[in-house]
Amino acid sequence: MVNGLSKGSPQTIRVGCFQPFGSLFLAELLKEYADAVGLMGIQLLEGDQNQLHDWLNTGAVDMVITYNIGTSFGGDTYTAICKVPPHAILPADNPLAQQPQISIADLAKYPLVLLDLPQTSTYLMTLFEVLGDRPKISLTTRSYETVRSAVAAGFGVSILNMRPTGHAMADASHLVRRPLTDAVPAPHLVVADIYGSSKPQFVKILTQMLRQYFLSLGPKGFAIVTAERSNGLFDFSKNA
To answer: Same domain, yes or no, for 120 and 56?
Structure first.
């Protein structure tokens, strides 16, 4: 147990997260946190960027864990954890799967399965519009898991950011992930809160545990990226 934390902690902490994060890594991290501080209640709200912003501003959650894309969290305080660059996910029998790296322009030649969450879909489509042609969209879904299933079923290819981590369900053998050759800015995984310099101890501890979780995983544990770019995923001295 973390010394002194359980005594000053609320009985229930309220955490908001970007919708895919709950199954990708956050359930595992929150269990580690609960074990560290003693049994307590956790309310996890999973939503899109707009919902997270609203929940934080209205006090529905104490903190949110998300990407710094779309809706700005600039009015709140946030802590950057790591960078999570986009990568390609495609069926193993797709011709591009034989390549060690894939360009967005080449990916755009195939039908696209789109993770259609507010702000997220705009971010993903901007990658194609800037670096390739706009692809034909074969299926849209708000679910990360359905993106994987649809790609496996042959609907097309997709672009995602984070790979499953820890005890999250691994990809099927007929799914392939490849890094992108394009040098695109990587979204930052961030923890945002409304406390500024007066963060409660439980917010500080959970943020520290999240940082350590990804440091322990290392780039290969959560990202699909070329070797030369992996070294900068924890470096925030530059914006790129």
So the answer is: no
